[in-house]
Design goal:
18 strands; Rossmann fold; 47% helix; alpha/beta; six-stranded mixed β-sheet
Length: 601
């Protein structure tokens, strides 16, 4: 089979087939996209097969069996010893198959008539085993996930026809006469997990091949080719303040078919702009991955108030290694720990802009599904999306509240162990280092399984603690700026000095209240007097649990360099540290003088 410059997935098929490793394949991934230029993935495969095969038979539920060219249909009829189309006396086999198909289609056309899977597979199997068919036939099953029952359906609940279809497909991959016929078989499905588990297991005889999403170089080449193609047809597509290379970068995670749609939209709009590409990409991702992923909008440097230690760490251990090509020094996983509201999510948005990566958040609340296997499928889909989006920053918030952070023992959730193992496998993949950075965030690191926390999966555990007075001042200024408010310097000093153990979220609430009070009174500036009034109105709960969450974060830290000097010494005596945690836990008995505050530890 000869294809000029074939993609990697096709070379994988060739190697496996020619070596005799397998003759039956499950093809998943970007099956609906383009291989290159104007050639689809299916078109490439069919063209290559047609060079060496008399017959390429394609079965689709609802359409029956079709062929790329009419001569292949005639060859198939000949291999089965059937009468040619249009002959009044139809072969009994054709009549019988037409009957199995429910009488749909003409009796003299058993292929389009065989729409029901049992009828179609019976006919295709006869082709595969035809006496003269060795090396002459290739079979493609489109939408294989629709042809056989979903993996959640147990065999006992299957209809007799479904069980027959499953048994037939299993036999195709292991039956010696079929294996010896040198006729390849392909099952196409977008998701591997949509294929019945019996066909996916290692002993099934089927080899799974994934068609990956295009790389940046492939996306750039496609943009250049398609614009050239349109120009030759007298329908040029202009670029409005953006280059083909930039389009290739911005469209990470999209297929070439998606990129073609974007270019066509640009042609209608008078030019392809950065805004058009970004808006269309967000819409595509929202449509295709809305259940599992949400794109994160980055924020500018000025929007991150305070966080000097976090900035310094990110610059030294994330940004610099990536910019200098030292990918081996970049962390694969990072865990942000600390009290609620300290700006962990805000920091991730800043980091996404600082490193220049795509940024996406896992919607963990939508992962758990009610059907067996659905949760695993959703998480696998998310991880596949992340790989296609690389370089990518991934954010998983409130990790402690997800069954993905624990093995599932004692959780009562039967799929928790599977999700946890998927997480471990993804985080252990060294090929992702430097191209995918996963940032987790939690208030309760003590609830996360230690297997996920080990080095090599999570390389840095960074405490994000409550701000000191100087940091509170910077946060207040940033909050006022982001809220479009003016604030007097003395008001900043007043708020910063009066809010020990306030989180960034608490400070934002105080600024918001002061701004609203100022507006009600006809002013546009937060004065010291208004700041004091806002302090009297906003009474956050955070200070009551500040010590507890702060100590949990310190205890989780595995590198004293990531702690403020005042706290680093606490790691030298873990037993004493854990005793302090127990003493200030929310359910611990309170002594008369009350709990100590975080800055007095």
């Amino acid at each position: 089979m000869s294809v000029t410059n074939p993609p990697a997935w096709f070379r994988q098929f060739q190697t496996s087939f020619v070596s005799g490793e397998s003759h039956a394949f499950i093809v998943t991934g970007d099956i609906n996209g383009y291989a290159h230029e104007g050639v689809t993935q299916r078109g490439l495969l069919i063209t290559a097969l047609a060079h060496k095969r008399e017959v390429v038979a394609i079965y689709t539920l609802g359409r029956g069996i079709t062929f790329p060219v009419p001569s292949m249909r005639e060859a198939a009829m000949r291999l089965l010893g059937m009468e040619a189309a249009g002959t009044p006396t139809a072969n009994p086999l054709a009549a019988a198959l037409a009957g199995l198909a429910g009488g749909q289609g003409a009796v003299d056309d058993p292929f389009t008539a065989a729409r029901r899977p049992t009828a179609a597979l019976d006919l295709l199997e006869r082709l595969l085993l035809a006496r003269a068919a060795s090396g002459a036939v290739a079979v493609i099953l489109e939408g294989a996930d629709l042809i056989i029952a979903h993996l959640s359906v147990g065999k006992g609940a299957m209809s007799p026809d479904d069980r027959t279809v499953l048994a037939t497909l299993r036999q195709w991959a292991t039956d010696r006469p079929i294996a010896g016929s040198d006729n390849p078989i392909f099952l196409f499905s977008r998701e591997l997990t949509d294929i019945h588990a019996d066909l996916r297991e290692a002993t099934s005889g089927y080899k799974a091949i994934t068609i990956p999403m295009p790389t940046r170089d492939q996306r750039v080449a496609f943009v250049q080719w398609y614009r050239g193609h349109r120009a030759e047809e007298g329908q040029p597509i202009a670029l409005d303040g953006i280059t083909a290379e930039e389009i290739g970068t911005l469209t990470a995670g999209l297929s070439l078919r998606h990129i073609k749609d974007i270019l066509l939209l640009g042609a209608q709009a008078g030019g392809v702009s950065r805004e058009l590409v970004t808006a269309r990409k967000d819409a595509i991702i929202a449509s295709d991955y809305t259940d599992v992923a949400e794109m994160i909008e980055s924020i500018p440097d000025a929007a991150l108030g305070g966080a000097a230690r976090l900035r310094a760490w990110a610059q030294d251990e994330v940004i610099a290694p990536l910019r200098e090509g030292r990918t081996e020094d970049a962390p694969k996983g990072v865990l942000l720990v600390g009290p609620p509201g300290t700006g962990k999510t805000h920091f991730v948005r800043w980091l996404a802009g600082a490193v220049g990566f795509n940024a996406v958040a896992l919607r963990s609340e939508n992962i758990l599904g009610g059907i067996v296997g659905e949760s695993e499928k959703k998480l696998k889909t998310f991880f596949g999306f992340v790989r296609s989006l690389a370089p990518c920053l991934v954010f998983m918030d409130e990790l402690d509240q997800s069954d993905m952070s624990r093995r599932g023992t004692g959780s009562g959730n039967p799929v928790a162990s599977n999700l946890f193992n998927q997480m471990l496998q993804f985080m252990s993949d060294e090929t992702l280092r430097g191209t995918v950075i996963v940032v987790f965030a939690t208030n309760r690191p003590d609830l996360i399984d230690s297997a996920l926390l080990r080095f090599g999966r999570i390389d840095a555990i960074i405490p994000v603690l409550l701000p000191d007075e100087a940091e509170r001042g910077a946060i207040i200024v940033a909050q006022a700026r982001s809220q479009g408010a003016q604030i007097a310097e003395r008001a900043v000093a007043t708020l910063a000095a009066s809010t020990p153990n306030y989180s960034a979220a608490d400070l934002g609430a105080v600024v918001r209240k002061a701004r609203m009070v100022a507006r009600r009174e006809g002013g546009d500036t937060i004065t010291p007097e208004l700041a004091q009034r806002a302090l009297g109105l906003i009474r956050p709960n955070s200070p009551a649990t500040a010590d507890y969450y702060t100590l949990l974060a310190i205890n989780a830290c595995t590198d004293a360099e990531h702690l403020p000097p005042a706290y680093a010494g606490l790691l030298t005596d873990r037993a004493s540290l854990q005793a302090q945690i127990a003493a200030v836990a929310p359910d611990a008995p309170r002594v008369a003088e009350g709990p100590r505050r975080g800055r007095d530890l």
